[in-house]
């Protein structure tokens, strides 16, 4: 995402990046270098000090709270500069996001806060084809949309603050279940004697077609040992957040708890831990020769 921002943004824009993963920033520097317009921050506070627009993507609610506490303790916006816009692309619970937004808007930072989680995975992030699901006041869209379009192919305004996360949790709830179903179907068909490629092609021109069957088919991800992609722990986290949101509003989820049990079990297996969430296929008994 940072690479696409740097390559596609105006050359006179300054990009300040920070990541606790130093390997990630090293890869960025190795490819694009460091200049006066391309800065690696030495500490988190430097990001908010030097930027008018701050984009965050963090693993969970606790990380968002921690980072924004650091932001709010940093110096306030210099006089005369445009108000700071915080775009949080993390997938977290709606109540935490709204609480952070309230704190930002009431702080001395003169800030606006937008929730804009993404869909598309690591492949979409690299290709610049992510979908951004935005929860914000309509007045901010002219400022938000051109920026996010540098990193994605679709920017969908889902509604007021919190609505972007509502869209993301709903989508990922469906994805968590379709991934399990795809893994089960591929495992079933292959054990019934079908060739994996034939089965994949059949499903993808038939009514069973979905993202998990077409783009992230477990027979394909098995070829790379289920490495990279969207981690099983992240899917487990997103599913938990979706179930929590459903409980808060009284929405019945017939498949939610069973799916959660599956991801808990998958993550508990050493050969599956830390892999792409399609590793459910391995847990089911597919890919037996590669364990």
TrEMBL record:
Record keywords: Branched-chain amino acid catabolism, NAD, Oxidoreductase
Pfam name, any one: NAD_binding_2
Sequence ranges assigned to domain 6-phosphogluconate dehydrogenase NADP-binding in this UniProt record: 1-159
GO cellular component, one term: mitochondrion
One GO MF term: NAD binding
Enzyme class: oxidoreductase
Catalytic activity of the protein: 3-hydroxy-2-methylpropanoate + NAD(+) = 2-methyl-3-oxopropanoate + NADH + H(+)
Assigned protein family: Belongs to the HIBADH-related family. 3-hydroxyisobutyrate dehydrogenase subfamily.
Protein name in the entry: 3-hydroxyisobutyrate dehydrogenase
Organism: Tuber borchii
């Amino acid at each position: 995402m940072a690479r696409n921002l740097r390559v596609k943004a105006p050359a006179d824009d300054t990009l300040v990046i920070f990541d606790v993963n130093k390997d990630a920033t090293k890869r960025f520097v190795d490819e694009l270098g460091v200049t006066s317009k391309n800065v690696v921050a030495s500490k988190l506070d430097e990001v908010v000090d030097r930027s008018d627009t701050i984009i965050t993507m963090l693993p969970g609610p606790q990380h968002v709270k921690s980072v924004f506490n650091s932001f709010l303790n940093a110096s306030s916006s210099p006089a005369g500069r445009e108000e700071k816009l915080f775009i949080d692309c993390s997938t977290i619970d709606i109540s935490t996001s709204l609480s952070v937004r309230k704190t930002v808007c009431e702080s001395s930072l003169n800030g606006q806060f937008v929730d804009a989680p993404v869909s598309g995975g690591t492949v979409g992030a690299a290709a610049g084809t992510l979908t951004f699901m935005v929860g914000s006041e309509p007045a901010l869209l002219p400022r938000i949309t051109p920026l996010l379009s540098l990193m994605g192919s679709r920017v969908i305004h889902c509604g007021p603050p919190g609505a972007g996360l509502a869209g993301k949790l709903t989508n990922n709830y469906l994805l968590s279940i379709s991934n399990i179903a795809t893994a089960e179907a591929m495992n079933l068909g292959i054990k019934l004697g079908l060739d994996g490629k034939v089965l994949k092609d059949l499903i993808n021109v038939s009514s069973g077609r979905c993202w998990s069957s077409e783009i992230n088919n477990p027979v394909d991800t098995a070829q790379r040992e289920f490495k990279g992609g969207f981690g099983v722990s992240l899917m487990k986290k997103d599913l938990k957040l979706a179930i929590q949101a459903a409980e808060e509003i009284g929405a019945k989820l017939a498949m939610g708890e069973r799916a959660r049990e599956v991801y808990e079990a998958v993550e508990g297996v050493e050969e599956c831990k830390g892999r792409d969430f399609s590793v459910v296929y391995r847990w089911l008994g597919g890919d037996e020769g590669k364990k």
